[in-house]
Amino acid sequence: MSADYADAVARIRDTIAAYAQAVDDARTEDVVATFLPDGSASFPGSEVLHGHDAIRATYSKLTPGVPQRHVVLNIHVTDFDGESASATSDLLFLVKGEKGWSVRLVGRYTDRLRASGEQWLFASRELVFV
Predict the structure, then answer these.
(1) Residues 6 or more apart whose Cβ sits within 8 Å of residue 21
(2) What is the pLDDT of residues 113-127, one digit of tens each?
(3) CB burial of residue 121 (10 Å; 0-12, 13-18, 19+)
(4) What are phi and psi of 66, to 5 degrees?
(5) Model's pTM, two decimal places?
(6) Residue 1 clears pLDDT 70, i.e. is over it
(7) Phi and psi dihedrals of 104, rounded to 5?
(8) 74 — alpha (psi -120 to 50), left (phi > 0) or beta?
(9) Do residues 67 and 94 touch, judged by C-beta distance below 8 A?
(10) What is the average per-residue pLDDT within 33-52?
């Protein structure tokens, strides 16, 4: 494993975590900041969102009514070429109700990321429920 690959994986994991925490905290601008300006997002129940404006418009409406957590794990980075990479990861979506935390959804993300300065940002992010 090269140092460049290891550094990229660490930065990609940072981007994935920043996205999850921003979604859970309803910080729309921080969600948008994890995407390239021409990036896209796709998840069940929504059309494919292209670009910062579309991502912002949709995510600004996703304000949680109860505490929630996107628990992202099994992150696997592939197709690394120094400038871009693919990643797949699993999602457990938890919500807190009257009886405590419960798993609401299980899914898998398929991501394409590109280096942007010191960061790795989503060129595309697709979520499917499993």
Answers:
(1) 27, 30
(2) 999 999 999 999 999
(3) buried
(4) -135, 160
(5) 0.96
(6) no
(7) -100, -40
(8) left
(9) no
(10) 97
- Name 73's bridge partners: 90
Q: How wide is the angle at C-alpha 130 spanned by C-alphas 8 and 44, nearest 5°?
A: 85
Burial tier of 13 (Cβ tally within 10 Å: 0-12, 13-18, 19+): middle
Q: How far apart are CA 66 and CA 96, in angstroms?
A: 6
Measured distance CA(77)–CA(10) in Å, rounded = 10
pLDDT of 67-78, one tens digit each?
Answer: 999 999 999 999
CB atoms under 10 Å from CB of 89, counted, come to 20
Neighbour tally for 101: CB within 10 Å = 12
